[in-house]
Amino acid sequence: MANSKRELFLRRRLRVRNKLRKVSDDRLRMSVHRSSKNISVQIIDDVAGRTVAAASSLEPSLGIAGKNNVEAAKKVGAALAERAKAAGVENVYFDRGGFLFHGKIKALADAAREGGLKF
Predict the structure, then answer these.
(1) Confidence (pTM)
(2) Is 27 within a domain?
């Protein structure tokens, strides 16, 4: 029997996360979530179990609430990079979850790199 789309997504997410943990070198994790209407990203310290910095397209300060396009993803990535630098974070590893690395996810990652994050 064929797996559902959701099951395939969950397997892909676990596969990506487990591979990244093997090579993480105790760096913080930059985790991305994309829904049909919004995109959010956070930098997580898995050892301490806390979020260091976060950004979302839902934030009124970014002025992109409800927009889920490439331009919104770029603004979210730039905002996260700025907040991460303020928190003293420079090196992270990029956890794309089960999402493919193209479109909005790629735009967010490129904007975060331009903002000074290294991954």
Answers:
(1) 0.86
(2) yes
Digit-coded pLDDT (tens) for 43-101: 999 888 999 999 999 999 888 876 778 999 999 999 999 999 999 999 999 999 889 99
Which of these, 44, 38, 37, 39, lies nearest to 94 by C-alpha position? Answer: 44
User: Which alpha helices (DSSP H) does the chain contain, by range?
Assistant: 5-22, 70-86, 104-114
Domain-embedded: residue 119 = no
Contact of 117 with 86, CB cutoff 8 Å: no
In a domain, 61, yes or no: yes
Q: How far apart are CA 99 and CA 32, in angstroms?
A: 8
Please give the Cα distance from 44 to 20 (Å, whole number).
14
Q: Which two tokens stand for residue 107?
A: 């735009």
Measured in whole angstroms, the distance separating CA 53 from the mean position of its chain's CA atoms is 11
